[in-house]
Amino acid sequence: MRFSVTSACLFSLYISNAQSAAGPPSEFDWSAVTPSSQLQYHKCYDGFECARLVVPRDWLDVEKNKTVAIAIIKLPASVPSSDPSFGGSIITNPGGPGGSGVYFLRKQGKNLQKITEGKKHYEIISFDPRGIENTTPKTDCFGKSHALARDAMLLEQRGIGGLDSSESGLKRALALKVGYGSLCEGADSEDDIFEFVSTASVARDILEIADRTEQLRQADDTKMVQDDLQSPLHQRVEPKPPRVLYWGFSYGTILGNTLASLYPGRMGRVILDGVVDSHDYMSGSWLRNLMDTEKIVQYFYATCFEASGECPLWREGDTSAKDIQSRIEKLITDLDEKPVSFIADDQKASIRVLTGVDIRTAFREPLYAPLPTGFQHLAIALAEALNGNYSLIGPNNYPSIPLQDVCGLDRYSPGDAQAAIACGDARFYNPEDHPKGANLTYWGDYVTKLEHQSPTFAPFWATVGSACAGWGIVAKWGYKGPWTTPSADPSLKDDAPAAPILFTSSRLDPVTPLENAYKMSANHPNSSVLVLDTVGHCASGNGWSECFNEAIRAYLENGTLPENGTMCADTTCRPFVKGGECRPPESLYSAGVDGYGIAQRNWGRQPLGFPLGFP
Question: Which residues pair with 67 in a beta bridge?
């Protein structure tokens, strides 16, 4: 039986103003593609193929005429589907929730293909989930003609400060979120999409993509491969539908866990990387994410100290990493007590104000992706801030508010999908208990709990959980668990997966700690946890290891699982250290002119993603 391989991936970088972050200009006119209930691919971008697949908007009532047109992108395999070495289709999802699979695959598709290439060759597929970017209709509380209103809300949100700033600030922040929820409820009454973007609905969409992919392949093949098959999984037994291979990152592990739990008999292979606690996410708590965050912060200071002069923050006379950390902590305290202003270099007419929260927020992206240059860019920016130059910190916190004339520009906007998905899921999971509304005591205690886990990430992460404080739209269809599967059966027994789930993780992950992988794995018989000895969000995007890659290939090809708890070494270098594949450009080794210039160009310029996603 042939596989449809599905990989749920997530954008891992979140900012509270991500909804209007600037993104890459589109090079493909999606509106020129007619949506169809059958896959009809068109050449797009550079070496990719794109299609728009029509699916029912309401999977619980497919007789209704309302539909969704899912934007799908494919990176073809290096061999035709009729070749005996063709392994199937890997469908990826960038998660977030709310990230664009189209953008993700353009950025990471070839890297994923390189990991999987072995005896078998795979095509990689991704898609923009319901409500997101090129998929229509799109979740948008403000409307295309009201981009300025969205920016105004983001600026007001920034002016209020972090939820930990003061009781007054917390009250205003909660009031703003209640207003945002009311705005989205009004928008949904017009377009009727917000209640149909749940994780369960997207899981069902994945089956449809797999079915239509197999249907297209059967139509395109001039002959069926009958020989040189290495596994009974490749034997097409009609009328059974194709098995799905799913590779999910971060929030994509929730999507994958839900997919496997709802449809165990459709699963061929399931890889979940950067594992989220499904119960914690669905309950709307977001309290099982930051257990290892401060360990990575300490790793940043430790590797900086070990690198001595190669790290811009190191100074003569430092006796330990604590000396470096103390200077940054004093900078945070000083800016909390006395914020500073500066004129942005890129606009000249823009006044920026920085507080201690902005310094803590600057750790966000580098902790997700420390290598190859994340830690180096952070060290350069912090070193400049210590010297009174805040221009490298500032852009990281103002990337989405355009200050030039933008009338007529087609601005990229992920819309409001993150709130619609996460909050809709939570409201379905426990409608009596969530959202907590403007309950000042609850949210004050919530921030305190996060601060105990990670004082560095708490202000940022609190904005993630509290986004649902005023949300009232309940998902039409959701899943409350259990997140479990029956024992696997490679003979393709009905209602059983073909292989156990493979969970993977970095040793230290800032938002999906390793312990989550073991907790979720315990609910799936004979599943295994594979660890990459590196730091950063998700194993697949942080470092390179043939040990890790070979384990992925063996699992995809024949269902072989590594021993539970296997740890593969990251063969790339440590931060700030010369030598190795991850070595930053030579000009980044100091905070000199060249390194400063590159950091200034790169810092805060990439499209930012979401709290639970692929780096």
Answer: 56
Q: Which of 115-129, 265-279, 465-479, 590-604 has the lowest mean pLDDT?
A: 590-604
Q: How far apart are CA 197 and CA 476, in angstroms?
A: 9
Q: How remote is the C-alpha of 59 from its chain's centroid?
A: 25
Strands 42-44 and 48-56 turn out to be antiparallel
536: left (phi over 0), alpha (psi -120 to 50) or beta: left
CA distance 615 to 613: 6
Gyration radius of the chain over CA positions: 24
Rounded-to-integer distance, Cα 115 and Cα 281, Å: 29
| Locus of tokens 């207003």 | 179
Phi and psi based region of residue 295 (left: phi greater than 0; alpha: psi -120 to 50; beta: remaining): alpha
Gap between the Cα atoms of 125 and 111, Å rounded: 13
User: How many angstroms separate the CA atoms of 93 and 74, rounded?
Assistant: 12
Structural contact between residues 479 and 199, judged by C-beta atoms closer than 8 angstroms: yes
| Nearest-angstrom CA–CA distance, 489 and 92 | 24
CA atoms within 13 A on the CB side of 398: 24
Where is pLDDT greater, at 578 or 8?
578
H helices within 430-496, ranges in order?
A: 440-453, 458-465
Nearest CA among 36, 166, 203 for reference residue 447:
166
pLDDT in tens, 144-192: 767 788 888 888 888 887 788 788 889 999 999 999 999 999 887 666 8
Helix (H, G, I), strand (E, B) or coil at 602: helix
How far apart CA 222 and CA 224 sit, in angstroms, is: 7
- Exposure string of 258-274, with b = 16+ CB inside 10 Å and e = fewer, is bbbbbbbbbbbbbbbbb
Give the start-end residues of each E strand in 17-106. 42-44, 48-56, 67-75, 86-93, 95-96
- Chain centroid, CA 315 distance in Å: 36
361-402 pLDDT tens trace: 999 999 999 987 899 999 999 999 999 999 888 655 554 555
Asked if residue 370 has a cis previous peptide bond (ω within 30° of 0), the answer is no
| Contact call for residues 96 and 12 (beta carbons, < 8 A) | no
CB 16 within 8 A of CB 154: yes
Mean pLDDT of 520-545: 93
Q: Which long-range contacts (CB under 8 A, 24 or more apart) does 285-289 make?
A: 285/465, 286/461, 286/464, 286/465, 286/611, 287/446, 287/449, 287/450, 287/453, 287/465, 288/513, 288/516, 289/461, 289/511, 289/512, 289/513, 289/611, 289/612
90 phi, psi to nearest 5 deg: -100, 110
CB 179 within 8 A of CB 470: yes
Q: Give 485: exposed, middle or buried? Use CB within 10 Å, 0-12, 13-18, 19+.
A: buried
pTM for this prediction: 0.88
**Side-chain half-sphere exposure of 142, counting CA atoms within 13 A:** 19
CB 225 within 8 A of CB 82: yes
